[in-house]
What we know:
The chain is 65% helix and 0% strand. The chain has six helices and no strands.
Amino acid sequence: MDKPVSGLTRKVIAYSAVPGSSADYFVDWAYEMLLLGHDTPNLVILAGITKPTSKEEALPYLKAALAELDLSEKTGDDAVICYTGYLINKMLATGDIKGGLEALNTCIAVTTRS
C-alpha cells in the first residue's frame, strides 16, 4: 500500500479487542481513508453509514473493506497488541496518559474474560 493510512487503522483491524458495541470509529476510519485517497466500494458504504452505529450493522462492510485494501484483521493476542499500539500512539499524540491507560485496562479486562 503506497498511500498513507488513517491513524485509526490499528484500532480498526484490532476491533475484536476494542471494548463496547459502538462502531462509530469504523465510519470515521473509512472517511479518513477516503480522504487519504483510498477508494473501494465497501469503504464508501462504510463511510456513509449514519452514526451512531453498532458493530453488528457495520462489521460486514468493514470486513469487506479490509479485504479490498488487503488489510488483515487481528484476533486474540495479536488484536490486543495491535490495539495497545494504537492506544500508545494516541497517548503520545494527545498527552492523555490516564485515559489511554484506562482504555488499555478495560481492553485487557474484557479480553481476558472471554
